[in-house]
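Worked example 2:
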Amino acid sequence: MLSAMILAAGRGQRLAPVTDKTPKPLLDVGGKALIDHHLDALQAAGITHVVVNVAHLGDQIIEHLRKLPSDSIDVLISQEPEGALETGGGIFQAVDKIKTDPFLVLNGDVITDLDLATLPTGIADLAHLVLVPNPDHHPEGDFLLDQDRVRPPDGCKGQSLLTYSGIGVFQKALFSKCRPGRFPLGPLLHHAAREDRLSGRIYRGQWIDVGTLERLERARSEMRVP
């Protein structure tokens, strides 16, 4: 069974002033914290080992996680400096805490009804991405899906791209040439796609990137959470 990492270190500036005092993972959606939806989905998929990276108001997230039943899920914290390390740097710093290879990654600011148990527990590629139809706030998309192969957007003019959902299964080898520090994930994924070492699938179910106040309210009013 996979281990997982929840990315929870972002400041959530587009959600200010709400996130000035409450970190994004602790925002209430449907009567419980956003991060609790992720933890419930992971447990439902049989995943019991999770690494959570924290930075902005990280003490609140840590305190929240400490209140979880000790026998429900094993959570390790990857503490980042204020300002965080971006997605790539955050995963790289935490990679030695993650027990399995490959491992599941969940962006802490998306909410979905995707059954995580349907994701592969073993992959031959450097990563397997869940892609979604382009939302209104990201109409240009990120990647081309060619059967199960994820292609970079270069040279895909006129072809329909899809958006990376923030959910994927990663090999630790994706980060083998990285160095500690702040860096994004996107360039690593695009490089892997150009080398034909990226697979994926499309998910057409419920998915919301809770990145702005408007989309937070949409999630609260529209999202049907299992």
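The chain has six helices and 13 strands. The chain has one domain: 4-222.
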